[in-house]
Amino acid sequence: MHPNIQAITQRIIERSKDTRRAYLDGVAAAQNATPPRDSLSAGNKAHAFAACPAHDKQALLGGKWPNIAIVTAYNDMLSAHQPYQRYPELIRQAARDCGATAQVAGGVPAMCDGVTQGQPGMELSLFSRDVIAMSTAVALSHNSFDAALYLGICDKIVPGMLIGALQFGHLPAIFVPSGPMASGLPNSEKARIRQLYAEGKASRDELLQAECDSYHSAGTCTFYGTANSNQMLMEFMGLHIPGASFIPPNTPLRDQLTSEATRRAAAISKMGEAYTPLAQVIDEKSIVNAMVGLLATGGSTNHTLHLPAIARAAGIVINWQDFDDLSKIVPLLTRVYPNGQADVNHFHAAGGIGFVIAALLKSGLLHDDVTTINGHGLRAYASEPMLENDVLSWRPSPDVSGDKEVVTDCDAPFDAEGGLRLLDGALGRGVIKTSAVKQAHRVVAAPAAVFNDQDDVQAAFEAGQLERDCVVVLRFQGPAANGMPELHKLTPMLSVLQDRGFQVALITDGRMSGASGKVPAAIHMTPEAKRGGPLAKVQDGDLIRLDSIAGTLSIDAPDFAARASAPMPQPNVQAGFGRQLFENLKGQISSAESGASLFGIGEK
Fold first, then answer.
1. Residue 572 has pLDDT above 60, yes or no
2. What is the pLDDT of residue 571?
3. N or C: fewer beta carbons within 10 Å in the chain?
4. Which positions ≥6 away from 589 have C-beta within 8 Å?
5. pTM above threshold 0.90
6. Superfamily of domain 420-569
């Protein structure tokens, strides 16, 4: 093991000693010597199994078979979740074939940030993660299950499900993906047309056609955003069947992997031969593995929120300093859009997650001695699934990259450091994704252009007011202010300014998306402006220096400390969109560095 990986892991263990013990004590209290449903009364059982087929009902009432919960995020509007429509019956049959039963325990909401981007509904997006966690707990509250399969793939859904599942850490858990859509319009071409539209050089019809050619069928979007970063994390944390992440939907191999997840869930239940509760899989080492995977693949900045929230749900405390210290020793091994031109299908064909895991293990940058649902440590995930005569099997991942422009090993990385860094200074603490930012743009010093609403940034751009070197400061976008919506609609216009030769950057207490790209963006700034953070004191024209190499954010304003904070503008709360239902949550949510969560460990 790399000594720094060991040291960072050990300090997380020490920092989390009390909270982790409290969590594990709670898990131990929930464990029973007999299947959970044996504690149910006759009336409880009758309600729980009333609608089951006769054979399943007999097995369940007799307590002879493990019962697997299906927690599903199915809806047929989200392309990534539409394939889940056929999963329950596939799972039920696979369960019967291995001497188990399966029931859909409940559903969780699944919203698409691609649909709500720049719309009022985006203000519900981050909150939806914790709603999903609570919905997962409701689904499992019937206490009728011996293991659970989680059908979720996109942005807030997998983190929310995992946070909820960890409250039932005595139950084994397996996450079951649906896979990516086929490659469509290249991501670079889509980005080019978006920029042309922002400049008024492409029509709305041309923009719509490009978007439809990019997002065109069932499966996840093929760029390496939060959804596909989620799948990578589930592999690195040992919660997938090995190699399951990027197999296309509705294919024989995908169906076999789903059936295998069912068989494995039965096997690792307390009634199986290899009981493996979730609390045993998610520990300090698996959390470090997840952070390493995120850095090595240039994954989504959203996980600097989600991973702390997930860790805290398991009694583990991580912070952005841990990400930063890991980033200094974990090399960047992939070039997948927005960090390159390839999409996840090209990445998978070139070696994919299995190749990256093998390379990191070889260099001592991952913990192999972890518990996984597979039962063989993380090295089992340095493999890829295949069908031989309709029988599922695995072969080792290739030793050599299939495309060295897309994925490489630790001997010849794309960058010696990972793609995320901590920024700290007079403007607070934040994170920046540097993996797609060219070296010439990693340090920006320019006057501030201050805004309180992303629509005002767009208006200033369209009026030509940003045709200069500038650091756009967009504040009052944090979780306590308006739910921390993604600000990805700013990317095309800021990219246009950069391409015109201006030095531009973004600083915000909001967040960008998994597609954060070539413009340097200091995001998740904390304390946020709503809670008196220093962004509330910045004024137009203040000279700001963003240095992602040194990890600093500075401001040249002699009277800065003495200034009064600008008040948050009156929110434009419209009727509808459900935003009023979430108003009370804003005062309860933790800081971005603590996961921007409604529960768990962390300061407000």
1. no
2. 63
3. C
4. 479, 480, 596, 597, 598, 604
5. yes
6. IlvD/EDD C-terminal domain-like (3.50.30.80)
